[in-house]
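retry 2 of 3: previous attempt timed out while embedding flavin mononucleotide. Reduced batch size to 1 and resubmitted. Inputs unchanged:
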Amino acid sequence: MTVTTDTRKQILDAFQFRHATKQFDSSKTVSDEDFAVILEAGRLSPSSYGFEPWKFLVLESQELKEKLWPVAWGAQNSLKGANRFVIVLARKKADTLYSSDYITRIMTEVQGIPTEYAEQKRASFEAFQKKDFDLLESDRALFDWASKQTYIALGNMLTAAALLGIDSCPIEGFNKAAVEEILVNEGILDPEHFGVSVMAGFGYRAVEPYPKTRQSLQEVVQYLK
Ligand SMILES: Cc1cc2nc3c(=O)[nH]c(=O)nc-3n(C[C@H](O)[C@H](O)[C@H](O)COP(=O)(O)O)c2cc1C
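retry 2 succeeded.
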C-alpha cells in the first residue's frame, strides 16, 4: 500500500466530515453497497483474543422503531431520519467466560486453531480474565469488557461511513433495561447471551453541523521519553 499526502488528507478529511448528526434528511437513502461496506467495517474489527463478542442488529421495522422511541431519547433523531439503524449487541458471560462453548467454537471453527493450541490459548485467556483484568469480579465487568470492544466496531463503522460521505450518529442515549425488555419480548434478544451495547444511525445530513470542538493535541497527548 502506498501512502501519499493525498491518503493522509483523505483520512483527516473523513474525520473532520464525521460528526454526530442530529438532523438527518429522511428522503436520502444509503445504498445497499455502501451499507454492506459499513457492516464489513464492523465485522472486520479487532477484538481481544479475536473473540468477536458482538452482533449487529439492523433495525428496519417501523413498528419496532416506534416501540424503541420512548426509551431511546438519544436515538430519536436517528430513528426518525436516518436511513439505516444499527443496534450493537455485546455478548454476556454465558459466551465470554474462558470456558464457554462459544469461546471453544470461535477458536476451533472460526480461527481454525488445533485443539492443543486452543487449550493453551484458553489458559492464557483464563489468566487474563481472572488476574490481569479481574473480569470475573461481576457479570457487569465481563459485559462491559465485551461492550468496550463493540465500540471499536462502532468507531470503524462511523469512519467507514465518513469515507463514503455518509453521515452517522453514535448512540448511548437509551435506557438499556427498557430496550432489552422490548427486544426480549419481541423474541429478538436472548438475554442469557446478549445485552445491548450501543446503537448508530446512518444517513445523510439535513443541515451543516457546528464547527468541531476539540482540545488541542498538546492537551491530550503526552510523550514519554
Ligand atoms: C458512545 C457515544 C454515545 C453517544 N450518544 C449519543 C446519543 O445518544 N445521541 C446523540 O445525539 N449523540 C450521541 N453521541 C454524540 C456525541 O455527543 C458527539 O460525538 C460529541 O459531542 C462530539 O461531537 P461530534 O461527534 O459531532 O464531533 C454519542 C457519542 C458517542 C461516542
